[in-house]
Amino acid sequence: MTEATTAADGRMPALYIGHGAPPLLDDPVWSGQLAAWASDLPRPKAILIVSAHWESAPVSLSASGAELVYDFGGFDPKYYRMTYRTPDATALAGRIAKLMPDTEPVHQHTSRGLDHGAWVPLKIMYPDAGIPVLQMSLPTHDPERLLRLGERLRPLRDEGVLIIGSGFLTHGLPFLKEFRIEAAVPQWSADFDQWAAEALTRGDVDELSSYLSKAPGMPYAHPTVEHYSPLFVTLGAATDPGAPGLQVVDGFWMGLSKRSLQVA
């Protein structure tokens, strides 16, 4: 893992992470990478996370302290008993609402909790659940709109808020031939991962935004794009979206790319 750093001016970074299915919690390799990454960061005052598993417009915020969403099936019953109760995040919700223009109103959901795209990685990164957390919905898949959304959220980083886009750099589940952690990597997954790694190294936001026409491995890598889209919220929240970020985690899990990014 590449050593993680924060911005020179003391801002919290913004992250794009692969969140994995609940069995990630039992994978010592990837969970160890996420835990080590979190330990390298300053402790956030609050966390705002955008997960691939909540697509809703207008922009919506989860209810602070609500029950978790168990939006998966076929796994060990123990995962459906897990909890992750975090402190009240009402103040963060109010702050986010003030950052949004009239053309992008914020809906405060009264009952929705964190889905597995949020609580699974956070249970590893911040297991004490001692940090206020809000989840924001993914209101669009248009890279330009998501970059603008991230830009509006950028001031939160100066206030100690860790902004996380949670997805999976490749997510072609229908095209996997086997479902085990050490599964062989399909060529479409390897090709997309290499393309994205090179574009991220260059800080080439235009290339990353043109994935539908330029990325090798499509549409197999993303038959639907909700796991890729959160990347643009992260890039928009960067101080300089065109600056190369730190690719802190790489490699594959069940044949899917777990490449993850930190931007200053």
Automatic annotation (TrEMBL):
EC number: 1.13.-.-
An example Gene Ontology molecular-function term: dioxygenase activity
Keyword terms, alphabetized: Dioxygenase, Metal-binding, Oxidoreductase, Zinc
SUPFAM superfamilies xrefs: LigB-like (SSF53213)
Needed co-factor(s): Zn(2+)
A Pfam cross-reference name: LigB
Gene3D superfamilies, A to Z: LigB-like
Stretches assigned to the Extradiol ring-cleavage dioxygenase class III enzyme subunit B domain: 34-240
Membership in a protein family: Belongs to the DODA-type extradiol aromatic ring-opening dioxygenase family.
Name of the protein this chain belongs to: Class III extradiol ring-cleavage dioxygenase
Taxonomic lineage: Bacteria, Bacillati, Actinomycetota, Actinomycetes, Propionibacteriales
